[in-house]
UniProtKB/TrEMBL annotation:
<dbReference type="InterPro" id="IPR008920">
    <property type="entry name" value="TF_FadR/GntR_C"/>
</dbReference>
<dbReference type="InterPro" id="IPR036390">
    <property type="entry name" value="WH_DNA-bd_sf"/>
</dbReference>
<dbReference type="Pfam" id="PF00392">
    <property type="entry name" value="GntR"/>
</dbReference>
<dbReference type="Pfam" id="PF07729">
    <property type="entry name" value="FCD"/>
</dbReference>
<protein>
    <submittedName>
        <fullName>GntR family transcriptional regulator</fullName>
    </submittedName>
</protein>
<dbReference type="GO" id="GO:0003700">
    <property type="term" value="F:DNA-binding transcription factor activity"/>
</dbReference>
<keyword id="KW-0238">DNA-binding</keyword>
<dbReference type="GO" id="GO:0003677">
    <property type="term" value="F:DNA binding"/>
</dbReference>
<keyword id="KW-0805">Transcription regulation</keyword>
<keyword id="KW-0804">Transcription</keyword>
<dbReference type="InterPro" id="IPR036388">
    <property type="entry name" value="WH-like_DNA-bd_sf"/>
</dbReference>
<dbReference type="InterPro" id="IPR011711">
    <property type="entry name" value="GntR_C"/>
</dbReference>
<dbReference type="InterPro" id="IPR000524">
    <property type="entry name" value="Tscrpt_reg_HTH_GntR"/>
</dbReference>
């Protein structure tokens, strides 16, 4: 019985988390156990366990009166996330070239871009594929601590990324630009390749997300 309860709690956790990440449960939205129980068609016990897990991750917050809210995304959150990404990915992208591994990584990143193109009609799936592409870039650093920092912020990256798509970033154009970035990487052209990563992902992504209000 305990094994079944754990399994249901995990199912509830993943379903609620997916709905937070795809903005079905939007930032700032109030939730209740009763509402989630009805949405998921589950009893309160697994839903309550899922809520506790999501509170521990910071995706759900509760106040003094124990009301449950999807964590807001502030302008500072957006700026902080993009600053973190530019610092980590900028250093990683440069290392890809200085280590002479730009051709190897062009194929690795191209594989991720192909998946992004396949997900072009679904902004949430596209954002998930996009985060995989960026994780591939920082993989060159071979630093578990940096990976953990990045992974701890993936949920916010996915949510913020969808704001970017809704308010200025165009998926088809971004995919085409990434294909061009891959071609520059294969030629060993760091300047033009990084210009696309910086302008299309860091600057455009940040500025589009900030226009969400």
């Amino acid at each position: 019985m305990a094994r079944k309860t754990t399994s249901l709690a995990e199912q509830a956790y993943q379903t609620i988390k997916n709905r937070i990440l795809d903005l079905t449960y939007a930032p700032g939205m109030s939730l209740t156990e009763a509402m989630l129980t009805e949405d998921l068609g589950m009893s309160r016990s697994p839903v309550r366990a899922a809520i506790q897990m999501l509170q521990a991750e910071g995706l759900l917050v509760s106040d003094y009166y124990r009301s449950i809210t999807v964590r807001e995304i502030t302008d500072k959150d957006i700026r902080d996330i993009y600053q973190l990404r530019e610092l980590l990915e900028g250093a990683a992208f440069q290392l890809i070239f200085t280590s002479g591994r730009h051709e190897e990584y062009s194929y690795r990143i191209e594989e991720k871009v192909v998946r992004m193109c396949a997900a072009a009609s679904d902004p949430y799936a596209w954002e998930v594929a996009d985060t995989d592409m960026h994780m591939e870039i920082i993989g060159i650093l071979d630093n578990d601590r940096i990976n953990r920092i990045y992974e701890n912020n993936l949920s916010e990256q996915i949510r913020i990324g969808q704001y970017s798509v809704r308010h200025g970033m165009r998926i088809p154009q971004t995919n085409e630009r990434l294909k061009k970035m891959v071609r520059y990487m294969r030629k060993g052209d760091y300047e033009h390749a990084y210009e696309i990563l910086r302008d299309d992902h860091f600057m455009l992504g940040r500025d589009s997300a900030l226009r969400r209000k």
